[in-house]
Amino acid sequence: DDDDDIPQLSSHALAALQEFYLEQQQREGMKTSQGFNQYSIGSIEEDWQLSQFWYSDDTASCLAKEAVVAAGKGGRIACISAPSVYQKLKEQDGKDFSVCILEYDRRFSVYGEEFIFYDYNHPLNLPENLLPHSFDIVIADPPYLSDECLQKTAETIKYLTKGKILLCTGAIMEEQAAKHLGVKICKFIPKHSRNLANEFRCYVNYASGLD
């Protein structure tokens, strides 16, 4: 047979490849369909090279609800490196709060004026219209589990918040979180859409609904 020298995929590998392409087509089809919601989690996919790990839908919902309650009616919420919480807040189409997203990934510029380019290496390099202590609550998820990243992100958090802080980071950062932000670990265990190797926790500096 003339085809003998042509490499052939095993039936298992071929099926897996076909499934991958089908899922990809379905995702793209959802994105281009009339009913596509640009704010839904997964509308912008994780970029692991940017240390991005999206929360599970339940976790994003829980954190978004907590933020709305903590901010109060007419409150302002800032999401620092926590786009899946931002997306869940926007899904609610709430008129009793406003929200912005500070994010390094410029793909999130699709969200218009609510997107603020943010690089934790320059924690106070912020637009002039982001006034100090102008947010009722700041939710932050520093991209790296390092003291340097947390310390610099903490500068931004303390600049923006009127007082309330909701921090999401690794359990190993508990001591540093208390040191830099005065936050304490919550009972609530956040989950990600893909399991992380490191134990992840939430921290707050106010009486929250996460305990």
UniProtKB/TrEMBL annotation:
- Keywords of this entry: Cytoplasm, Methyltransferase, Transferase
Task: Give GO MF terms, alphabetically.
Answer: nucleic acid binding; protein-lysine N-methyltransferase activity
> Where is this chain's protein located in or outside the cell?
Cytoplasm
Listed Pfam families: N6-adenineMlase
Q: Which GO terms describe its biological process?
A: methylation
Query: Which Gene Ontology CC terms are recorded?
Result: cytoplasm
**Known InterPro entries for this protein?**
DNA_methylase_N6_adenine_CS, Efm5/EEF1AKMT1, Mlase_EEF1AKMT1/ZCCHC4, SAM-dependent_MTases_sf
UniProt catalytic activity: L-lysyl-[protein] + 3 S-adenosyl-L-methionine = N(6),N(6),N(6)-trimethyl-L-lysyl-[protein] + 3 S-adenosyl-L-homocysteine + 3 H(+)
Q: Which PROSITE patterns match?
A: N6_MTASE
Name of this protein: EFMT1 methyltransferase
**What does the record give as the organism's lineage?**
Eukaryota, Metazoa, Chordata, Craniata, Vertebrata
